[in-house]
Amino acid sequence: LIALPAVSGARHEPQAANTTNSANTIRLSYQNTDGWRSSRTKRKALGQQFQGLQSTTSSGGYDIAAYAEVHCNGKDDVNKYANDINPAGRSYFTWWLAVCVGPALDDVPVQAYTYGGGRVIRLDMTLEGKPRSYLFVYAPCERADRPQWFTNFAACMPVSREVIIMGDFNTRMSKLDHQHGRAPNAGHEEWGHIRSTYNTHDVWRRRN
Questions:
Q1: CA-closest candidate to residue 47, choices 34, 35, 33
Q2: Structural contact between residues 15 and 91, judged by C-beta atoms closer than 8 angstroms
Q3: What is the pLDDT of residues 141-165, one digit of tens each?
């Protein structure tokens, strides 16, 4: 794991740290942005969603949102992305991913890490007195790379913490994962082993 610094939005005003309390419900989002970091129009649209100005949830906006394929290249791109989407909060970036933590969680200390060539961002925090980790994943597209990448995934899994994993895994676990019912592909056995080892519960699969 490699520590990842926060990028503060232009309007961010830190609050006093509080390691035990937070909102009862954390509103989460994950989207694949398809590499459009240079389009301010699209960044602004995501900012409207994230800040609740264009409501996409019943409560409006998100507390933590992750975006894959952001392709931010250097400080200037990172600052544009942070200011357009999450101007009042903290954001974390790799080439592959951006994770925005909104101002509702300003009083919650966050330790951020990246792993797997920037394809995982992990946020560690304490919510209501309980240690919790959020892992946001963008797995390799190339079939030859996925099996070993998933085999190594255990290195970034936390111990003795609540864990929530969201991402684009580029992996079909069953025909349910493809609109035309295609069979499982490379990496499904290795990812299945991780899920079984850590006893994760696939919320989407349970609902579908």
A1: 33
A2: no
A3: 888 899 899 899 899 999 899 999 9
CA–CA distance, 152 with 120 (Å, rounded to integer):
12
Q: What is the pLDDT of residues 8-44, one digit of tens each?
A: 999 998 776 665 445 458 999 999 988 755 588 888 8
Contact criterion met (CB below 8 Å) for 106 and 100: no
Residue carrying the six token digits 């070993």: 148
Pairing of strands 97-101, 64-68: antiparallel
What is the DSSP track for 100-156?
EE-GGGTTS--EEEEETTTTEEEEEEEETTEEEEEEEEE--SSTTTHHHHHHGGGGG
pTM of the model: 0.88
- Amino acid in the structure at residue 7: V
Please give the C-alpha separations between residue 76 and each of 7, 39, 100, in angstroms, as whole numbers: 11, 14, 17
